[in-house]
């Protein structure tokens, strides 16, 4: 294909793509009807032409047999030829010497063809042929005695032409009617889409996600409306979650920022007055600086946990088959390095799961950090991992005061902190992150009172078959990290 043809094809494609769906359906309907009418016309014309030709040939054969019978009785040279009536069939007798006889007043026929002459000479019995002259004769030659007779008829295309003209008018009417019907059907069929589009535009302009789209129609339209309503519901939940996160973050950041600002303002004011050393003894200054460091650390922790929680999903990390025991050991090691005073006793068994290692390690680390805040200095945090049926069960047990029954339902809520935990460092986001990670892995997190009197946080995750036979994490079944 040449370049101009390529450009024209691309231009036509772009034009078609810019048309509305209603216009496309109308054009498609009209084109389909036009093609159908054209094909029907071609087939009908061919059938009609064959039928008319067969009728004319049969009539010529019948007339030729009557004339041939008379010629055999009287001889081709003596047979009586009726006068030409002025229209209708034409006759001619071919004599043995090749000359011809025609009725008086009859128009001249085309010269005898070579094949017709052979019939007169006895080479064949008959011949049906068409003449390509302007008149367009259909001529039948039949052997008669020692010559032949010919009966001819002018090929009349007027029935075909009249039929074609009628089909053209019918076709134009059908195409116009098809375009109108297609337009009406497209308008009716796309009416729910138009209303759906208007509703979507209204939601986009007003930002009102609570305005659902009315459910109407059936089949694909209903499924589309339901999908859009589900999308709007998800957007509403996301926006509410963002609003809640922003409100909670502002609330949680307010206290440490206020305390930090007051302490910094105190230091600046005393420094400007030149009374910093006299107003703040070394012991008070050290305590104030320690408070500032603790507040900065709390803000850093809160900022990191807010960032982690604001992501809202852990699906960015690839899922892989992993040994949960390795994740638990790595999390315990990190907890020990972050808080040297924390003591973690591990009792883990190799259990394979399908999950995201970084997210799971963050969840386990949060569980250990939370337990470490409550456990007495002389009591370790006990971390147990085992297979239980088709689940991997992780338990983090502390020897603290436990969780009040009234606080249990809200333990995994964002920013929730029991009254007894207000004085302790933390943002109230750690267990919420645990809940999110566990939910993303198809598991469940619960909290109960442990046998040691503290809280027992329990996580159950779907277990997976190991890739091949494996040994236990250590030579024995238990491992301790001190």
Topology:
Blueprint (H helix, E strand, L loop, with lengths): L2 H16 L2 H54 L15 E5 L5 E2 L12 H7 L5 E5 L6 E8 L2 E8 L3 H32 L1 H16 L13 H54 L2 H4 L2 H29 L9 E4 H15 L5 E5 L3 E4 L1 H18 L6 E8 L2 E7 L32 H11 L3 E6 L5 E8 L20
Parallel strand pairs: 7-9
Antiparallel strand pairs: 1-2, 1-5, 3-4, 4-5, 6-8, 9-10, 10-12, 11-12
Helix pairs in contact: 2-4, 6-8, 9-10, 10-11
Distance between the termini: 78 Å
Cα gyration radius (Å): 50 Å
Q: Say how many strands there are.
A: 12
Instruction: Spell out the helices and strands N to C.
Output: HHEEHEEEHHHHHEHEEHEEHEE
Structural class: alpha+beta
Report the total helices: 11
- Main beta-sheet annotation: 5 strands, antiparallel
Q: Main sheet: which strands, in order across?
A: 2-1-5-4-3
Overall mean pLDDT: 76
General shape:
rod-shaped
Helix content: 40-55%
Q: What ranges have pLDDT less than 50 throughout 5 or more consecutive residues?
A: 418-427, 470-482
Describe the 3D structure.
The structure is a single chain. The radius of gyration is 50 Å and the shape is rod-shaped. The relative contact order is 0.07. The protein is built from eleven helices and twelve strands. By secondary structure, it is α+β, with helices and mostly antiparallel strands. The strands form three sheets. The chain has a five-stranded antiparallel sheet with strand order 2-1-5-4-3, sandwiched between helices. The protein starts with a helix and ends in a 20-residue tail after the last strand. The model is unreliable at 418-427 and 470-482 (pLDDT under 50). β4 and β5 (147-154) form a beta hairpin.
């Amino acid at each position: 294909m040449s370049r101009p043809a390529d450009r024209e094809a691309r231009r036509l494609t772009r034009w078609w793509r810019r048309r509305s769906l209603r216009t496309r359906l109308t054009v498609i309907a009209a084109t389909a009807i036009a093609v159908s009418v054209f094909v029907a016309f071609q087939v009908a014309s061919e059938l009609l032409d064959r039928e008319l030709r067969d009728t004319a040939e049969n009539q010529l054969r019948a007339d030729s047999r009557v004339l041939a019978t008379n010629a055999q009785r009287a001889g081709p040279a003596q047979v009586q030829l009726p006068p030409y009536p002025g229209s209708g069939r034409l006759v001619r007798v071919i004599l043995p010497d090749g000359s011809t006889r025609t009725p008086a007043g009859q128009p001249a026929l085309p010269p005898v063809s070579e094949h017709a002459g052979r019939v007169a000479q006895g080479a064949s019995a008959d011949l049906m042929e068409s003449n390509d002259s302007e008149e367009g004769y259909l001529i039948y030659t039949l052997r008669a005695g020692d010559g032949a007779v010919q009966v001819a008829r002018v090929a009349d295309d007027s029935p075909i032409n009249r039929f074609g003209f009628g089909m053209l008018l019918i076709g134009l009417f059908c195409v116009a009617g098809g375009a109108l019907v297609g337009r009406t059907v497209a308008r009716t069929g796309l009416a729910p889409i138009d209303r759906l589009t208007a509703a979507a535009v209204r939601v986009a302009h007003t930002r009102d996600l609570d305005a659902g789209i009315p459910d109407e129609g059936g089949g694909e339209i209903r499924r589309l409306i339901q999908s859009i309503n589900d999308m709007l519901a998800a957007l509403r939940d996301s926006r509410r979650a963002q609003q809640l996160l922003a409100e909670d973050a502002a609330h949680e950041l307010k206290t440490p920022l206020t305390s930090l600002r007051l302490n910094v303002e105190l230091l600046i004011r005393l420094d400007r007055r030149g009374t910093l050393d006299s107003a703040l003894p070394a012991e008070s200054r050290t305590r104030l600086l320690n408070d500032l460091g603790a507040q900065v650390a709390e803000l850093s922790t809160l900022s990191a946990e807010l960032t982690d929680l604001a992501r809202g999903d852990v699906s960015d990390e690839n899922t892989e088959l992993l040994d949960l025991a390795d994740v638990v050991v790595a999390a315990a090691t990190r907890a020990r390095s972050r808080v040297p005073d924390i003591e973690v006793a591990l009792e883990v068994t190799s259990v394979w799961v399908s999950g995201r290692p970084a997210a799971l390690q963050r969840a386990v680390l949060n569980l250990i950090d939370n337990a470490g805040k409550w456990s007495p200095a002389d009591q370790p945090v006990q971390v147990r991992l085992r297979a239980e049926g088709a689940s991997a069960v992780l338990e983090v047990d502390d020897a603290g005061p436990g969780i009040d029954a009234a606080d249990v339902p809200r333990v995994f809520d964002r920013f929730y902190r029991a009254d007894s935990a207000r004085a302790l460092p933390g943002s109230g986001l750690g267990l919420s992150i645990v809940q999110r990670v566990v939910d993303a892995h198809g598991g469940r997190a619960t909290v109960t009172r442990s046998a040691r009197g503290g809280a027992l946080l329990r996580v159950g995750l779907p277990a997976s078959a190991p890739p091949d036979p494996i040994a236990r994490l250590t030579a024995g079944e238990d491992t301790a990290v001190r």
